[in-house]
């Protein structure tokens, strides 16, 4: 399996079901776990939790679902501590299931909570390295839930919904790119320690950063090949067009700089206004970096995605020219954290 699969698979997925399949295949190969289930509940729910499984019989799913509810989603068991068939912890027991060992990992994202269960039909003790693999995978599931949550929240904003749905009908690739950029921007914003209000602004602005592509002719925007200089000149108009599309909507003044200036560069060679250095607002610099990262790691008709190692080199090379050097260093830390799985699983 490619060593960067999970860095992009969760970001590109719109479905917990799809990601459970990827997760199941990966954990089967790396730690020999052949049965996985995820139970999720919203704070507002009063019914049984939603169940997402990999290679799990319905009877086992039902038994584990009942056990998860009765045990408050294994809240009293620390993350990654094994529960075995002969254990009885506060009334929690695996006796009615077909599993001998279960490793629970807790989920709590926004208003969603639950548990990810890695299930073994024999006695199994994971090594510290294997547990670290599991925790990183659990982090990816956390991030997928975050992504789905903020997609739902964003579409509740009526003033943006019409424009964004129009872009979705025109070019679904650009919409997926906008979601990815928003997600990477939030990872970096959280790393920096932005306030909740700043993170919310960053999220919405990143989702709308390419809205100006609505006005770019389809034969240019979706051309299955490299653009000519003239066509690229047309594409370069999209930040200013996006600004014009949004400027008269309510409560968008803080969003407009990111929409207009996300292609500006630290060295002043960007567009549309040739800003440089500190003239470029801090949140704009975050989205610019996230935008470039997703572009480099996404496959286009005319080129394959770059490997994460090559992307790292590109970011380092362009630090303090195209990108804010401080932000590049922090983003490289995020990449290294996400790619820890590579070292653990491949021994590199």
From TrEMBL:
* Residue stretches making up the HD domain: 174-296
Chain ranges of the HD-GYP domain: 152-347
Entry-linked PROSITE patterns: HD, HD_GYP
NCBIfam families assigned to the protein according to its UniProt record, in alphabetical order: HDIG (TIGR00277)
The protein's name is HDIG domain-containing protein
Specify the species.
Paenibacillus catalpae
Q: Which classification does the entry list for the species? A: Bacteria, Bacillati, Bacillota, Bacilli, Bacillales
